[in-house]
Design goal:
The protein has 194 residues and is α+β, with helices and mostly antiparallel strands. The protein has 2 domains: 71 residues, Winged helix-like DNA-binding domain superfamily/Winged helix DNA-binding domain (Arc Repressor Mutant, subunit A, Orthogonal Bundle), CATH 1.10.10.10; 78 residues, Lrp/AsnC effector binding domain/regulation of amino acid metabolism (RAM) domain (Alpha-Beta Plaits). The chain is 29% helix and 15% strand. Strands 2-3-1-4 form a 4-stranded antiparallel beta sheet. Strand 2 and strand 3 form a beta hairpin. The N terminus and C terminus are likely disordered.
Length: 194
């Protein structure tokens, strides 16, 4: 937007909307239109967005700042790993020794090939995504790099063969805007009385 990276959010963990510290944010139709414009082209100027949504540039700037501050919009460029030499994409579920989950998570987050670290419920404690230059790199990562982290009890690896959808394409600003079951319509759009 103004060409500068948002340094405040650069070192903070990504927190899903509805989670602490952000909580949820109320969106109106104008917020949704702004988000949709930015999702399709994050390089749009405030002036262009203002003309498109019919507001003044300062008002649009304030709205975008509010959305960024609330965690609803994250300023970043999505890098495609394969063309820059990292075609191996793997997801790894990790089991951790009790009491060491955060410590292991922090160590994983410091590793340069690790793009995603999430604490999860279910069969694993942590889920990570890694990008590597070749299969030998994946072998080394699994059998040498992860072995150095105290507290990892076990893991399972999935080599991603192809990605059909990535979350940045998710049109979340429009989710839930249709009729709800409490409005008298079924979730599939049919009348609840039929």
């Amino acid at each position: 937007m103004d060409g500068r990276l948002d340094k405040q959010h650069e070192s903070q963990p990504f927190v899903r909307l509805g989670s602490l510290p952000h909580g949820t944010i109320d969106l109106d139709d104008v917020d949704r239109r702004i988000m949709k414009l930015l999702r399709h082209d994050a390089r749009l100027s405030y002036a262009h967005i203002a003309r498109t949504v019919g507001l003044s540039e300062p008002t649009v700037r304030k709205r975008i700042d509010r959305l960024v501050h609330a965690g609803a919009i994250i300023n970043s460029a999505r890098i495609n790993p394969a063309p820059i030499g990292f075609p191996i994409d793997a997801m790894i579920g990790i089991n951790v020794v009790r009491g060491k989950v955060k410590e292991v998570g922090r160590k994983l987050a410091e590793m340069e090939n690790v793009a995603y670290v999430a604490y999860v419920a279910g069969s694993f404690d942590i889920l990570i995504q890694v990008y590597l230059p070749h299969m030998e790199g994946l072998f080394k990562f699994l059998n040498e790099d992860l072995e150095k982290i105290d507290g990892i009890a076990g893991m399972q690896t999935w080599n991603v063969l192809r990605t059909e959808k990535y979350f940045y394409n998710w049109e979340g600003e429009d989710v839930g805007l249709g009729p709800s079951p409490s409005d008298g319509a079924g979730g599939d759009g049919r009348d609840a009385s039929s």
